[in-house]
Amino acid sequence: MKAIQVHTFGGPEQLVYSDTVTTPEPGATQVLIQNSYAGLNFKDTLTRSGAYHGGNPDLPFIPGIEASGVITAVGDKVSQFAVGDRVAYMTGTMSTKENNCYAQYTAFDAGSNIVKIPDEISMEQACACMVQGLTGHYLTTDAYRVKTGDWVLIHGAGGGLGMMLTQLCKRAGATVIGTCGSVSKAKQALENGCDFAIDYSAEDFVAQVKSLTKNRGVNAVYDGIGKTTFLPGLDTLAKRGTMVLFGNACGEHPDPIAPTLLAQKGSLSLIRPALYDYLLSQQEMQIRATDLFGFIQEGSLNIPVSAYYPLDQAAQAHRDLEQRSVIGKALFSIDDGSTC
């Protein structure tokens, strides 16, 4: 089968394409999926470079943590899925280090994070709903439940997850301020639904947020950037506001802070959640995915796929992502013949 493999941790050049990788055989509790699309995520760049904080995969490995496709074989003990089912799934946890989605076929546990795709949902939409959609869902319903009247600050609002978060926050009734790293991404963030967009490469986002909120501050900050935005972000929060720190796309984790700092800045709350802890069961995965598919069908969630890469262009895709030139969600198109 065709796949991308990493034999040595390093830069994008370590993503090696091959069309002679052995096709996996499904175990008794697994299904074999012929992938149509695989998602491009920032975590993929961290595992490729050997810098993922949850632990690095054993070499060699096939990267990628989300995909959609069609089941072509099922194990002897699998009853909930059948050959021909269209499915979307997310591999890995903080502990297993499993990836395996940049490939034509993936063998996957039928009792894990996998769902059937409704007929009304495309393969592309379903794939894009996995990591970023599920992340956006738990961030806005569990990490901090967004409600009508809230003001919310979203860092990286021009990226795929930022766009997802914006739409989910707007659906919940919030006013959304988005920060972006360029004028073009700020424009895209506004078109996606942000009420206000700040180009943090040219503007002081703390001063802008205080001005927009008349010095009151926002109820919540969603920060997937990390060290460069974390401490300034605390200064944008209203009293008893919540900082949701869910990633480190800048490449560095924030420095430790004293808990008393949160009290000094207005009795703030700080949470550092991870997606996997909000998918503790197949039932929880199904509930979140069903919500997202429903939002798409009702028209309140539009997933902007901005780029499609062939699998043999994985290195270029990683370069584009790391250079912040990807606007919205990007997918690898693997087997066009199996898409809806």
From TrEMBL:
<dbReference type="GO" id="GO:0008270">
    <property type="term" value="F:zinc ion binding"/>
</dbReference>
<feature type="domain" description="Enoyl reductase (ER)">
    <location>
        <begin position="10"/>
        <end position="332"/>
    </location>
</feature>
<keyword id="KW-0521">NADP</keyword>
<dbReference type="InterPro" id="IPR020843">
    <property type="entry name" value="ER"/>
</dbReference>
<dbReference type="InterPro" id="IPR047618">
    <property type="entry name" value="QOR-like"/>
</dbReference>
<dbReference type="Pfam" id="PF08240">
    <property type="entry name" value="ADH_N"/>
</dbReference>
<dbReference type="InterPro" id="IPR036291">
    <property type="entry name" value="NAD(P)-bd_dom_sf"/>
</dbReference>
<dbReference type="Pfam" id="PF00107">
    <property type="entry name" value="ADH_zinc_N"/>
</dbReference>
<dbReference type="InterPro" id="IPR011032">
    <property type="entry name" value="GroES-like_sf"/>
</dbReference>
<dbReference type="GO" id="GO:0035925">
    <property type="term" value="F:mRNA 3'-UTR AU-rich region binding"/>
</dbReference>
<dbReference type="GO" id="GO:0005829">
    <property type="term" value="C:cytosol"/>
</dbReference>
<dbReference type="GO" id="GO:0070402">
    <property type="term" value="F:NADPH binding"/>
</dbReference>
<protein>
    <recommendedName>
        <fullName>NADPH:quinone reductase</fullName>
        <ecNumber>1.6.5.5</ecNumber>
    </recommendedName>
</protein>
<dbReference type="InterPro" id="IPR002364">
    <property type="entry name" value="Quin_OxRdtase/zeta-crystal_CS"/>
</dbReference>
<dbReference type="GO" id="GO:0003960">
    <property type="term" value="F:quinone reductase (NADPH) activity"/>
</dbReference>
<keyword id="KW-0560">Oxidoreductase</keyword>
<dbReference type="InterPro" id="IPR013154">
    <property type="entry name" value="ADH-like_N"/>
</dbReference>
<comment type="similarity">
    <text>Belongs to the zinc-containing alcohol dehydrogenase family. Quinone oxidoreductase subfamily.</text>
</comment>
<dbReference type="InterPro" id="IPR013149">
    <property type="entry name" value="ADH-like_C"/>
</dbReference>
